[in-house]
Amino acid sequence: MTLQPAVAQKPASVVILPFEIFSEKDMSYLQAEIPSALKKSLEQAGARVLLLDPLSEPDWKKRTANIEELKQLGLQTGADYVLWGSLTWIGQQFSLDLKLFEPLSEKQPRPFVAEGQGIENLSPTVDKIARDLRLIILKRQKILAVEVSGNQRIEADAIKRVVKTQPGDIYNLKNLSADLKAVYAMGYFDDIQIETETRSRKNFLTS
Question: Among candidates 82, 98, 3, 11, which has minimal Cα distance to 47?
C-alpha cells in the first residue's frame, strides 16, 4: 500500500474587520456576529484569524476605502488576507457583500455576494460564503470525481457505497484515510492505493 504524503504548509492568516450594517431596524449586533461566525468557520478549516473591533481599530471604515491602508494593515498584522463587508437589510430581504484582499498582491479585492430572505436564512448564507472563502484562503481543491479501478471480486458501486468522499467535497487527506480503512474492512482486498490526479483534480481508489 502506498500513500502520497501531504506537504505541510504554513497556516493562512486572515484579518477580519467589522461589518457595516444597513437596516431600518437596529441590527448593530450583527456587526460583530457575522465576523465571529466567519472566524469560527475559517479556524475550523485551519486558518489563523484575527478579529478587529471598532474600539481597537476606530478607523476601520477609512481603511476599507483605501488599498494602501489595507496593504499597511496586512503588513502590520502579518496577515495573508484582509476581509471586510456589509449587510444590507430591506424588509425581509438581505444582501451580504464581502471583499477579500491579499496585501502582498497587486490584485484588486475579490468580491463575494449572497442574497437571502428572513433572519432564519442569514446564518446558512454566512456559512455558504465561509465555505467559498475557505477554498480561496486555504487554496483547497474540490474533488471532481471518485473513480474505482482494478476491482475484480466486487462491483465498483458496492465500493463507492462505503466511500464517504463525494464529488464536490474539499480534498481532505484525513477523510481519504477513513475511506481507505472502510474499503479494507469490506474484506475483499489485500492491497489498496489512493491516487490523486491534480491536473484534472480527480481522486481515484484503486485495488
Answer: 11
| Residue 183: its H or E element | helix 173-184
| Nine cell digits for residue 63 | 481603511
- What residues of the chain score a pLDDT lower than 70? 1-10, 140-142, 151, 170-173, 194-207
DSSP 24: S
pTM for this model (two decimals): 0.63
CATH 3.40.50.10070 domain position(s) in the chain:
13-137
Under CATH, to which class is 146-206 assigned? alpha beta
CB 123 within 8 A of CB 181: no
- The SS3 call for residue 50 is strand
Question: Which residue type does 172 have?
Answer: N
* Cell output for 174: 484525513
Cα(195)–Cα(197) distance, integer angstroms: 7
Name the CATH topology of 13-137.
Rossmann fold (3.40.50)
Report which residue type is found at 123: S
DSSP labels for 143-168? P--EEEES--SS-HHHHHHH----TT
- Alpha helices, H only, 6-150: 30-44, 60-64, 67-77, 122-137
